[in-house]
Amino acid sequence: MNITIISVGKLKEKYLKEAIDEYSKRLSRYCKLEIIELADEKTPDNASEKEELQIKDKEGDLILSKIKDNMFVIALDLKGKEMPSEEFANYIENLGVMGNSNIAFVIGGSLGLSKKVISRSNYKLCFSKMTFPHQLFRVMLLEQIYRAFRIMKNEPYHK
């Protein structure tokens, strides 16, 4: 299975880079992982709604340029479906069984994802209604993907 993480925003913190490196190493036993890091657009402090839409659209066009036609796209979106880890593992496993072996997870910038990216996505997933820093969220996503593979393989992993 090929897993691609497309994420807006550059990682700066060393401890987050180390966590991503660790989960990337762990995942190498289960899948081919690619992480695509895209530059975020600077948002002025008092940005109008129109300016925010333009920023989301610009980031969205950059995201879409990295999505291949054969990818099953899972958008991380507050309006998406929440699910426990076991259900997430089953979902990923079923995608593979159904022939969707190229999965792209998309993490938007601080303003979220553009309508065009949401329209291109095959599924919307929500981890929580809480707001998380995008850099930290990348680590959380990798951990859940790793946990999903451990669950799929009936390998021990804390609950």
Automatic annotation (TrEMBL):
User: Where does the chain bind S-adenosyl-L-methionine?
Assistant: L76, G108, F127, S128, K129, M130, T131, F132
| One cellular-component annotation, GO | cytoplasm
What is the reaction catalyzed? pseudouridine(1915) in 23S rRNA + S-adenosyl-L-methionine = N(3)-methylpseudouridine(1915) in 23S rRNA + S-adenosyl-L-homocysteine + H(+)
What's a single GO MF annotation on this record?
Answer: rRNA (pseudouridine-N3-)-methyltransferase activity
Q: Which InterPro entries does this entry report, sorted A to Z?
A: Alpha/beta_knot_MTases, RlmH-like, tRNA_m1G_MTases_N
Listed A to Z, the keywords are: Cytoplasm, Methyltransferase, rRNA processing, S-adenosyl-L-methionine, Transferase
* Matching CDD domains: RlmH-like
Its predominant location is cytoplasm
Which Enzyme Commission number(s) are on file for it? Answer: 2.1.1.177
* UniProt cross-references to PANTHER family, sorted A to Z: METHYLTRANSFERASE, RIBOSOMAL RNA LARGE SUBUNIT METHYLTRANSFERASE H
Q: What is this protein called?
A: Ribosomal RNA large subunit methyltransferase H
The organism named in the record is: Clostridium isatidis
